[in-house]
Design brief:
The strands form two sheets. This protein has a five-stranded mixed beta sheet, with helices on both faces. A five-stranded mixed beta sheet has the order 8-7-6-9-10. It is built from ten helices and ten strands. By secondary structure, it is α/β, with parallel strands linked by helices. The protein folds into two domains: about 140 residues, Nucleotidyltransferase, domain 5; about 160 residues, Nucleotidyltransferase, domain 5, CATH 3.30.420.40. About 40% of the residues lie in helices and about 20% in strands. The chain is globular. Strand 7 and strand 8 form a beta hairpin.
């Protein structure tokens, strides 16, 4: 995939972060010129999870100031941008609409090229924001709040080869953390609590040994709920042990399934992206096991693992290189857009 020198504006509003980035593209190299993200953590902490209507209102209030800040930080004007890439799915419908309608209006007003981007392809693309870029074909594990997927990537084709049947890995982190009384967002809080503790509590690894590339984490959540019922009063050390045991169970399943899929598919690279890719235990384990199995390993830089405008800009640049464009009149949201089907 190669493109001439371009400047891409990336807009991401699929869930609870308003993020806009300016990306410079030179051939197949990508450089983030600026990225500004407005977090909604405090708005959703009161309810312990994302409320779609609240998220949409927050996006509507912050998207124009975020756009202005990203352009100012990049020292450019909107007219200097060559194309606008925006997440159009999957995600929360009302949240997606804010980003998509903003992008449509900007494209109409300026005549700039518009590209609707799949959110998961953005997480994939984030692995290209490293100095060393992945070789194709590649096997990608995408793990986020709502998605756990294994994707097979060739030059012009992406195929879904396995996904979660119920709760995603990020949901398992967040929901078990909430059961433990940890503040939202629970996943990072659970990981902090798990630091420096050797896990000792036996918890299930659902579907880990089944002969497929599917995932399931709802049973783990149920097992944690049952354990907490049996142990209503835990010491800080006991609580940390439970956190570490949950984390280890999730990571075991993710790594085992990915390496087994790689041994079957034989890719040139294994990729890791998505919000849960920020988890240091997962990054280290999958890196170590990938290299031990003879596969090159690439993971998104930490700052580009959570939902962000830079990854959408890279994905948009890749779509442009393939000759794809989206007329502003035809761009719409697709909350259930599944990549690789």
């Amino acid at each position: 995939m190669s493109t001439p020198h371009l400047t891409i504006l990336g807009i991401e509003t699929s869930c609870d972060d308003t993020s806009i980035a300016v990306l410079d593209v030179a051939g197949s190299r990508y450089s983030v010129r600026s990225m500004v993200t407005a977090s909604q953590v405090l708005a959703h902490r009161k309810t312990g999870g994302v409320v779609p209507e609240v998220a949409a209102r927050e996006h509507a209030a912050t998207i124009m100031p975020t756009l202005q800040a990203a352009l100012e930080k990049a020292s450019i004007k909107l007219n200097d941008v060559d194309a606008i890439a925006v997440t159009s799915g999957p995600g929360l419908a009302t949240a997606l609409l804010v980003g998509v309608e903003t992008a449509r209006a900007l494209a109409f007003a300026t005549g700039k090229t518009l590209i609707g981007v799949n959110h998961i392809s953005g997480h994939l693309a984030s692995c290209w924001l490293n100095d060393e870029q992945p070789q194709l074909p590649a096997l990608a594990l995408i793990v986020s709040g709502g998605h756990t997927e294994l994707l097979w990537i060739e030059k012009e084709k992406i195929k879904l080869i396995g996904k979660t049947r119920d709760d995603a890995a990020g949901e398992a982190f967040d929901k078990t953390a909430k059961l433990m009384g940890l503040p939202y967002p629970g996943g990072p809080e659970l990981s902090k609590l798990a630091q420096h503790v050797k896990p000792s509590i036996p918890l299930p690894r659902p579907m880990m040994k089944e002969a497929n590339f599917e995932f399931s984490f709802a049973g783990l959540k149920t097992a944690v709920a049952r354990y907490l019922e049996l142990h209503p009063r835990m010491s800080p050390r006991h609580k940390a042990d439970l956190a570490a045991s949950i984390q280890t169970a999730i990571v075991d399943v993710l790594v085992d399934k990915t390496i087994r899929a790689a041994k079957v598919k034989k890719p040139k690279s294994i990729l890791l992206g998505g919000g849960v890719a920020a988890n240091s235990v997962l990054r280290e384990r999958l890196s170590k096991d990938s290299v031990a199995a003879g596969f090159a390993f690439h993971v998104a830089p930490i700052q580009y693992t959570t939902d962000n405008g830079a990854m959408i800009a890279v994905a948009g640049a890749m779509e442009l290189a393939r000759g794809h464009r989206t007329p502003w009149q035809k761009l719409d949201v697709n909350p259930v857009w599944e990549l690789g089907r």
